[in-house]
Amino acid sequence: MRPPPASPRGWRGALGRAFAYRRPFRDRVAEVGLVLAAPASLAFLLTSLIVSSLWHDPAGGQRLAGACCAWQATDLPRGPLLPLLGSALLVRRPVEAVWTVAATWLVLGPLEVVGGSRRLILLGVLGNVVPTLLVDLCWLATGKADPGLGGLDVGTSGVIVTAAAALAVAASSLPVAAVLAAGLAVDVAAAPGLATAEHLVAVAVGVGVTMALAAPGRGVRLAPGRLGRPGTTGPLR
Fold first, then answer.
1. Most-buried pick from 57, 68, 95, 215 (CB within 10 A)?
2. Helix, strand, or coil here: 38?
3. Are 123 and 163 in contact (CB under 8 A)?
């Protein structure tokens, strides 16, 4: 009987351990394909790219995208609230679109495989709505002191930060937690204020919801080996 292959060492071994949390995602994609493995993640990404493309079409697409997704804090007192839900789909800069594509592959897809599509959707909605509402209310209550919230409050970052925090907990991934903490530290140092506070609230939402759903009596079952390593666990769909 052949002995098992030795684990890679050096930088390859470190890289493999850092991305070990993606093993269930890779296995699931290899088994059923990307569309069936992470349908909600893929739908979020494609919808975001379509909405964002419409935003850059002044002939009429921008009006359509604005009606569903262009949210501002000043809209809160007078409504409607549909753009609040859609604001997570609109990105205005190419770098944000690239970031969303990368985060779908590295964060949203792996979380959906571990936790299920419905839980990912729940986390995404709460991670966008709760931080935005809380921060907008604070901004209005403080007399609109922070100029950073005076314009459009849109972007996928709230959903992605919430999902990253949830993934760090669900997959017990120290590398994911470390990258998230480093990103937040840079965010706070570079642009402290209410806009940055949205990301801190999003982390709290991701961690809190994931821990609440995994608490005893919540009906969440754990499957041995779901995270790709013997003896580890992960929540079923």
1. 68
2. coil
3. yes
Closest among 237, 209, 211 to 222, alpha carbons compared: 237
Domain containing residue 177: 16-210
CA dihedral over 77, 78, 80, 86, signed as positive or negative: negative
Note the pLDDT of residue 235. 41
Residue 230 domain-assigned (yes or no): no
DSSP single-letter state for residue 3: P
- Could you tell me whether strands 233-235 and 222-224 are parallel, antiparallel, or unpaired per DSSP bridges? antiparallel
Residue 225 resides in a domain: no
Q: How far is CA 227 from CA 144, 221, 235, in A?
A: 45, 14, 9
The answer to whether position 151 is within a domain reads: yes
Specify the pLDDT at position 12: 65
Q: Is 6 inside any structural domain?
A: no
Name, in order, each residue with C-beta under 8 angstroms of 114's C-beta and a sequence gap of 6 or more. Answer: 24, 25, 167, 170, 171, 226, 227, 234, 235
> Could you give the number of structural domains in the chain?
1
- Collect the ranges in the chain with pLDDT lower than 70: 1-14, 144-150, 215-237
Dihedral class, residue 7 (left if φ above 0, else alpha if ψ from -120 to 50, else beta): beta
Strand partners, 223: 234
Q: How far is Cα 207 from Cα 171, in angstroms, rounded to an integer?
A: 12
**For the domain that residue 43 is a member of, what is the CATH number?**
1.20.1540.10
95 token code pair: 């770098």
Residue 143, amino acid: G
pLDDT at 188: 87
